Design the sequence.
């Protein structure tokens, strides 16, 4: 079955969490659902090089979306080492899909990737799964 790159109209809330703010669902989200699109301003390579934004998403060589706008609810999806979502670039746009069924009340998270973790977080992961693991260990 072909994947549909059309976000569903889901009840999503920005709420406080361990890393500041996160995006949470109020409804059940079935596996492989297109949840939301990551939107923002398309930057030129020159503007990307000068940007201090932590919301940059490369969508093609020389094309980067800056999702810093608060109108971009997807910017609140935090990194997770045990993600329930994945971000997929399709035709120069970024869509977030459910990797598994997601329960009401769950925070959405996807893996930001090693480069982001190194460049922005000094390889210090503060995602819920790593914090829980540290508390148990």
Sequence:
């Amino acid at each position: 079955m072909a994947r549909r790159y059309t976000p569903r109209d889901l009840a999503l809330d920005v709420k406080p969490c361990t890393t500041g703010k996160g995006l949470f669902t109020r409804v059940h989200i079935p596996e492989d659902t297109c949840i939301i699109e990551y939107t923002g301003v398309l930057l030129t390579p020159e503007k990307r090089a000068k940007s201090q934004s932590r919301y940059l998403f490369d969508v093609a060589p020389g094309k980067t979306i800056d999702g810093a706008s608060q109108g971009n609810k997807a910017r609140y999806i935090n990194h997770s080492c045990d993600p329930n979502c994945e971000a997929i670039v399709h035709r120069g746009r970024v869509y977030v899909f459910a990797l598994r069924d997601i329960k009401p009340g769950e925070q959405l998270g996807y893996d930001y990737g090693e480069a982001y973790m190194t460049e922005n977080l000094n390889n210090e992961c503060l995602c819920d799964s790593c914090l829980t693991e540290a508390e148990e260990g």
User: Anything to note?
Assistant: The chain has a mean pLDDT of 92.
